[in-house]
Every structure is written in C-alpha cells, then in structure tokens.
Design brief:
By secondary structure, the protein is of the alpha/beta class. It is built from 13 helices and 15 strands. It has 2 domains: about 170 residues, 3-Layer(aba) Sandwich (Rossmann fold), CATH 3.40.50.720; about 180 residues, Dihydrodipicolinate Reductase, domain 2. The strands form 2 sheets. It has a 9-stranded mixed sheet. A 6-stranded parallel sheet has the order 3-2-1-4-5-6, sandwiched between helices. The termini are close together. The chain binds nicotinamide-adenine-dinucleotide (NAD). The site of nicotinamide-adenine-dinucleotide has 25 residues, from helix 3.
Length: about 375
C-alpha cells in the first residue's frame, strides 16, 4: 500500500463519480452498535447515495429505537442479536461500532460471511485477535475499512505528503501527547465498558490509537519496541472498579533508532499551557506540529515558517464516502485492515509496556506488517 495511491484515492471527490454511480444499486447495509459513534456512522451512511440501511443492531432497546427513528426513510429491521446481521445474506455491508472488545470477533464473522466491513477503531484490543482479523481481511475479496479517520483529512494528507517528499529532511525524533481536561463521564453512555481495560483496552488503545496512527503514517511504518509507565494517579477507583490508567508516559523506538515519546493524561487543567494534543515531528531540515491547526514547518537556519497545508472545511463523512467508493469501484480501501492493525498493535505495544513495566518488542506479537 503506497501512500501515494492512498492519497490519490482519498483525494478524488465523491461528486466526481456521481454521474457514473447513479445507476449503481444501493448497497444493503447494517450497523451493529448504535451508541454514540454508531449513530454518527448511521447518519453519514444515510447521506450516501449508494447506501440503504436495512438492519440495525444493539443490545439496548432505547438505542435501537432511536436509531430506527433516525433511519426511518430506509425502514430498517432491528435486532438485538448481532449474529442475525451476519446470517442475513441480503446484507452486503456492515458497520461495527460496538465496544472495542467485540470488534475483532464481529468483524471476522462478517468478513467470513462475505460482507464488506467498516470496523471502528481500535480494530482489536489483543494481538492474537488482531492477527486473526488481519488474516481474514487479507483472504477476503471484500472491502475492509478501519475507523482511523484522521487519514481521510485532506489537511493531513497534504502535510504528510510534504513530509514524505522530504520537506523536513530525515525524521530524527517525534514528541506527541494526548492530554484532556477530564475523564470520560463516569456515568455516561460508555461508562459500562470504557473504564474496564478488558473491554476498552485502556485509554491509550481506545483513544490515543488515533494519534499513534498519525505517527505511524508519518513514519511510514511502526515502532519496533516500547517502554513506559502508566498509573491511576488522579481518578483512583473512580468510577468504582476502574482498571484503565489515567496517565502514562512511553517511549517507542522506530527503525533507525528514531524515538517517539508519548504522554497521555486526563487531568490537564484547561488554563494550564501545553494541554490538548500534539504530534511534533523533528527532522534534519526543520520541525512541524501536525495537530496544531495548519501544520507549519519551522526550518533551521532562521528561515520563515512554512505552512504545509492551509486549514479548510473537511467533509464530515469522508471516511464513510471512501468505504462506499471502494465497494462500488470494487477496489481495496486505502485505510484497510493493515492500517487498523498497525495502529491498534502500536497502542497495545505501549499499553503492555506500561502494564508490564518492561520493554515490549513488536516481534513478540508474531505479526509481520
Ligand atoms: N473513530 C472515532 O473517532 C470514534 C469516535 C468515538 C467512538 N469510536 C469507537 O466506536 C466504538 C463505540 O464507541 P461509542 O462511543 O459509540 O460507545 P457507546 O457505548 O456509545 O456505544 C456502543 C454501543 O454498542 C452496543 N453494544 C454493546 N454490546 C453489543 C452487542 N453484543 N451487540 C450489539 N450492540 C452492542 C451498546 O449497547 C452501545 O449502544 C468504540 O470502539 C470507540 O472507540 C470511534
């Protein structure tokens, strides 16, 4: 998968295909998991000219009812049993937006049933299940999209391409963080899984997987090893039984000894400087922060800063459009299982390093990417 091919596919506006696609039959689609993210995906899917939502699935009846109301124009069936989606041969495409511990099992079943799959990130929370999912996706002729939607942002596509073309020289080091002012709501809609590390994978795996994916994209690869420490230092036993860290500091080592230091926490006071998220990439010719508005390169030798990509309004559903475009054009999706697996495994590498308090090697996964 070359980055250039991805960039090309992602940059082709959907509207440009409208004339050739208007006669294409609508893709019968189901959504499994109609919570926060699933509802967003459902709305985006309903906007697609080439989609028809035929089934919705959630174990919570109120979520299912709300989603059915949202999708009323397509009059979908509803079910609380996700296996009914898999077994329904008329369904061709499936969105999976359940809690992370269910993703791999559901995605593998859907792939094996011959369906196109859009699986939310992280595509799995254990290396063993990701290995199986990757193998299933590679053996399938259908489309698989991983929900790493930062890759659909044209701003980042432009900036990353310029880095790949050498504008900052060779990458020597990366420094990144994902800091938030507060935890996710303890009694909110995701409170029944998010704080349990066996269901969500932990803050790094569930949330920072986006930031880590961006770094892998820039690095054109993945780290070989990681070390780090994590802790629950602020939200002790909040909510009761919490098993996910609320802070952590890691160092990931990429090929050629390029180090990436990453911190995460959920108690960064809003007024305190240097909060929020950044991905600072330090090269031999200059450096850039990819998450601070318009990515701007600061060159050595005192030159003026160079804006790598101007801020713009992005299509809200570009990633979903890419899913249907890949289905209709019968082409592999650019943001596929390999991208999703690499992102999730990078996060798992960091999480295991923190949990075990030792260096963890990618080679221990037994997954060559
Ligand atoms: N790509 C993104 O930017 C992004 C943003 C938010 C969430 N997400 C991801 O989407 C996923 C869902 O997150 P969320 O915030 O919507 O959580 P959520 O708790 O709001 O929704 C999850 C839904 O799955 C349902 N569910 C649980 N078990 C099920 C089962 N066995 N069968 C059918 N439905 C089941 C729940 O009832 C719930 O409605 C997570 O993996 C999360 O990381 C991605």
């Amino acid at each position: 998968m070359s980055v250039n091919r991805r960039s090309f596919l992602l940059a082709t506006p959907l509207a440009a295909h409208a004339a050739t696609w208007q006669d294409t039959p609508k893709v019968p689609t189901a959504v499994i998991g109609t919570g926060g993210r699933g509802s967003y995906l459902l709305r985006g899917t309903l906007e697609q000219a080439n989609s028809k939502v035929v089934m919705l699935c959630d174990i919570k009846p109120d979520r299912l009812d709300r989603a059915a109301t949202t999708a009323a124009k397509d009059n979908p069936k509803t079910t609380t049993d996700w296996r009914k989606v898999i077994d329904d041969k008329s369904i061709e495409a499936v969105f999976i937006a359940t809690p992370p511990y269910l993703h791999a099992e559901m995605a593998i079943a859907a792939i094996k049933a011959g369906k196109h799959v859009y699986c939310e990130k992280p595509i799995g929370i254990k290396a063993s299940e990701i290995k199986q999912l990757l193998a299933a996706a590679k053996a399938s002729k259908k489309v698989f999209v991983a929900g790493q939607q930062l890759r659909s942002m044209t701003l980042l596509q432009e900036a990353v391409k310029k880095i790949h073309d050498g504008i900052i020289g060779d990458i020597a080091m990366v420094k990144a963080q994902r800091h938030a002012t507060a935890d996710l709501s303890h009694d909110g809609s995701s409170g029944d899984w998010f704080f349990d590390v066996t269901k969500g994978g932990g803050y790094l795996v569930e949330q920072s997987v986006h930031n880590l994916d961006l770094i892998n994209w820039v690095m054109n690869g993945h780290p070989e090893k990681a070390c780090g420490w994590g802790a629950i230092n602020f939200y002790k036993n909040q909510p009761v039984g919490r098993t996910i860290f609320d802070c952590g500091s890691m160092v990931f080592n990429y090929p050629k000894n390029v180090q990436m230091s990453f911190t995460q926490m959920v108690f960064h006071p809003r007024a305190m400087p240097m909060g929020n998220q950044y991905v600072q990439v330090y090269g031999t010719k200059g450096s850039v922060d990819l998450m601070g508005g318009a990515p701007t390169m600061y060159p050595f030798a005192g030159g003026a800063p160079v804006v790598l990509a101007e801020k713009r309004k992005e299509s809200q559903h570009a990633h979903i459009e890419m899913f249907y475009r890949s289905i209709i054009e019968n082409k592999p999706a650019p943001i596929d299982a390999t991208v999703g697996a690499t992102a999730a495994l990078t996060a798992i590498l960091g999480h295991e390093a923190m949990a075990k308090q030792q260096i963890v090697n990618w080679s221990d996964f037994g997954i060559a990417i």
